[in-house]
Amino acid sequence: MSDSGVRRAPVEPGDAARAYNDRTKFRYELDTGGNEEIVTGLPPDRLPALGAQDPANEPRLFKIYRDLEPIPLASLPIEASISALDALTANGARASGVVIPDIDLLARILQRSNGILKRGISHRGKVVDYRAAGQTGARFHLELYLVTGDLPGLDAGVYHYAAHDHSLRRLRGGDYRAFVTEATGLEPATVTAPAILVFTSEFWRNAWRYLDHTWRQVYWDMGTMVTNTLAMAASVELPAEIVCGFADGEIESLLGIDPAYELVAGLVTLGRTDTIASTAPPIDRIDHAVEPLSPAPSPRFPVIEAAHAGTSLVTGDAVRTWRAATEAAAPFPVTAPPDSPAIALRPSSTSARSIEDVIEKRRSNRKYAEAIPVSFEDFSTVLTHAAGTPRLDVPFPPSDTYLIVNNIAEIEPGAYYFDRENSAIHLLKVGNFRDAAKRLCVGQDYPAEANLVAFGLADLEAIYRVYGDRGYRIALLEAAIFGGRMQLAAHALGLGAVGTGSPDDEVPLFFGPHASGKEWLFAAVFGIKCKPTARENAILTSFLDGDRS
Ligand SMILES: Cc1cc2nc3c(=O)[nH]c(=O)nc-3n(C[C@H](O)[C@H](O)[C@H](O)COP(=O)(O)O)c2cc1C
After folding, report:
1. Exposed e or buried b for every residue in 485-520, given b needs 16+ CB within 10 A?
2. Is 501 in the pocket of ligand 1 (CB under 6 A)?
3. Using a 6 Å cutoff on CB, does residue 541 contact ligand 1?
4. pTM of the predicted model, to two decimals?
């Protein structure tokens, strides 16, 4: 957003996204003591990777509308028809027919996406809410809103899901779905959706720790959370589709949010109706009072604002034109695997666990039993369940997945390429790359111990040529969904998993010529869980208690 508040069009496709990506790249630099530290930006820029994290001004982790009456929600388990593993790859549920969610199903999907599942006390006596989906740095900056027609148990309206008390608060009464539909350029799944979920980020909550890097993390965290949403929906055969094309400003005004402080990350349609809403009430300005996030006013983040504005779409017509261009360019070219022989995966592991159970029990795992191999079947099952294509409003640009194998049965430790199309891996180089795994995960220890580290990369220039700047958001989201599914599939098999950051430009260099020209997007690990000692756990999770490192 410019100073005048006008959304500025980027000069060339990719300009805004590339500028943001370059400015927020992690890289190693020597500090004054001669030790390596992580900074951001391309040389000569040397920007801090972490903020000051003033404890006196720490933002709260919830958006709380001050004067709106809560509509309490039940918490009734869903009746899942398939296992968690199957739910991760079931990508569209029923091909046709009317499927209308009621308030209890929506409540459970909201809770299993962004709700609190239990409350605990950290080793330093701080209250910790265990949330359904992990988010970077436990900064929980994402919010969910619902735009619905009349549903069983819920009148048509625009609602905010209040995670802190598991309730809805009504921002507008009436059926506003036609307004959303228009903003998406009449996207078909939106036209027939009885309910539309809107993901937003109150980014100061995360930027307090991560500064401008937060905007990437919006899509990492949404990808992680929407994995829960889609798997919950698939478990009850509720159609669900991610909608990336929408006029940002229109959805902001519908929710009454200010893009200087809260941005719309994406939409997800839920269900299918044959009662199409054709008109919406007028969009009067709303400005419901909210509790301040922090004692001092939320600061502005011009780099985030510029990146978001530069990747925004302005009108429903512009969205339609944009989506048509992406469809004309489909299918997006698939990367040819390296020449080394294909090693076929054997995804034969099973698990009867439901998605609710997996979400309930999952926790980010940072300690691994490095000497115990993960079976080739489990490894194969996790990767193939990560690789499915969720339903999206535009042709999917799949990221390329590169692997560091530390300890997987039947294959040599080394670097590999995962050929998603053909469910096979290809060796790039043999070796013990535990040290490299640590380095490529910003110096953290657990990637060296974990059995596998997966990195999502993409040729962003090719993506910009088709999707424009908006492609950056989609590429990050797609790679994060791969990572989110990988983690839930690992949890379903009783393995541990967690995400990680990386020094961007070192990742394609490590994976050699096959990865050259690509940009790093996302990374996550999985492996055999190992219980940390109380002391190790305190160190591994010290950032939850305000550790500034
Ligand atoms: C995209 C993503 C990246 C993450 N990166 C790291 C990381 O680099 N190091 C780390 O210790 N935890 C990382 N985490 C884990 C979060 O810290 C964790 O989700 C948060 O503390 C909440 O804990 P929970 O996942 O157990 O609910 C990451 C999580 C996500 C979703």
Report:
1. bbbbbbbbbebbbbbbbbbbebbbebbeebbeebbb
2. yes
3. no
4. 0.96
